[in-house]
Specification:
Elements lengths: L2 H32 L2 E8 L17 E9 L4 E8 L11 E5 L3 H6 L2
Antiparallel strand pairs: 1-2, 2-3, 3-4
């Protein structure tokens, strides 16, 4: 392979990753609007998957650290996994696991 082919392959690979991340964020924002949240922060997790395991997350899924505000004004942080296990982002699925906060602990007493 020549240098131009290598460069084109690298550009294509980067473009696929960028499109995958954009699509996953779009799925998370759609989930948020359906569940009366507004996403403030949405950062991809490459190493730390939070409450999601490496064995339960496929290559077609993406895990993000999110911060969202509910309609009542309550801010929550947690992790969101976009996509299905077998079909990745072709499946409209988002799983969210919220972080435990002191307020949540207080409300459960």
């Amino acid at each position: 392979m020549n240098t131009l082919s290598n460069f084109q392959f690298i550009l294509f690979f980067i473009a696929v990753i960028v499109v995958h991340i954009i699509w996953a964020k779009r799925r998370i924002r759609q989930w948020a609007s359906r569940n009366n949240y507004r996403i403030i922060k949405c950062n991809i997790c490459l190493v730390n998957l939070g409450p999601f395991s490496y064995f339960g997350t496929s290559g077609g899924q993406s895990v993000f650290k999110i911060e969202a505000v509910s309609v009542e004004g309550k801010t929550r942080t947690g992790y969101a996994r976009a996509g299905g296990f077998f079909f990745g982002l072709l499946r409209d699925r988002v799983e969210v696991k919220w972080d435990k906060s002191l307020l949540d602990e207080y409300e459960n007493v």
